[in-house]
């Protein structure tokens, strides 16, 4: 029997229509090829003429999806619940881009474009630490290391928290692609070893492990915020949770729980990875929510809770 989501969990964010539903399918790690090709957390939408979408205000629209792929731009999501450390923390947000584009360049371009106005106004709000006049000057890849060249505006304004945040956004966005492990930064064509007036040292290529303080206790990389969940749902990412265990819930558009399950990481002593497949039942395509949290070892309360909208689909 389906039951309603507990009141402690957040209401679904009402902002997804701005980017349209995305399609999640990670059956292939290639970066080029036919319409079935995927690249890490990106995928090629179905060949159907469009997806009929009913957004939370009741409006029904049809979003065309052919010849597009989905990439994630890593922004920040404000805290609205109890966390093990102060945020906000990184969140991957889905963006549809032309299939013909280079996925790394497209993802960075979407990152520099920033959150939509609707995402900024959502609860919790989606934000960015990157100055809005930052330009992408170039991207190259050698032996798994991406060199990202940005305009000088990238290091302007903000204190140390903002500087670490924008570096983390870049690193996580670029390393969503499995062929890239780390990032070397350039500003206006010049290598960066000391970043900004804050004097942040960048010693060699930077990877995700260098910015774990910017990640939530449970970071879901797949699916991204506002993307299609697929059926069965493929959920993967990393987490630092007590005894390597957390909960994952899928709810429908009415807030009814479709699935409530336990997920385990591969490391009970710190950060570990998780990758799981969860079947669910829904009669028709609709917006729903993916919700994850950890039960506090201290008092059993929900901590490190995250909820965001995903597009649900009936099983094939």
Main sheet specs: 5 strands, antiparallel
Residues in helices, as a percent range: under 10%
Strand content: 35-45%
H-E string: EEEEEHHEEEHEEEEEEEEEEE
Radius of gyration: 19 Å
CA distance, first residue to last residue: 22 Å
Shape descriptor reads: globular
Q: In DSSP terms, counting alpha (H) and pi (I) runs of 4 or more, how many helices? A: 3
Number of domains: 1
Secondary-structure content class: mainly beta
With strands numbered from the N-terminus, the spatial order across the biggest sheet is 1-16-15-18-19
Low-confidence stretches: 1-64
- Number-wise, the strands total 19
Task: Describe the protein's architecture and organization.
This protein has one domain (3-312). With 316 residues, the protein is mainly β. The model is unreliable at 1-64 (pLDDT under 50). It starts with a strand and ends with a strand. The longest helix has 15 residues, at 160-174. Helix 1 (103-113) runs antiparallel to helix 3. It is built from three helices and 19 strands. A hairpin with a 5-residue loop joins strand 2 (51-54) and strand 3.
Q: What would a concise description of this structure say?
A:
The protein has 316 residues and is mainly β. The protein is built from three helices and 19 strands. It has one domain.
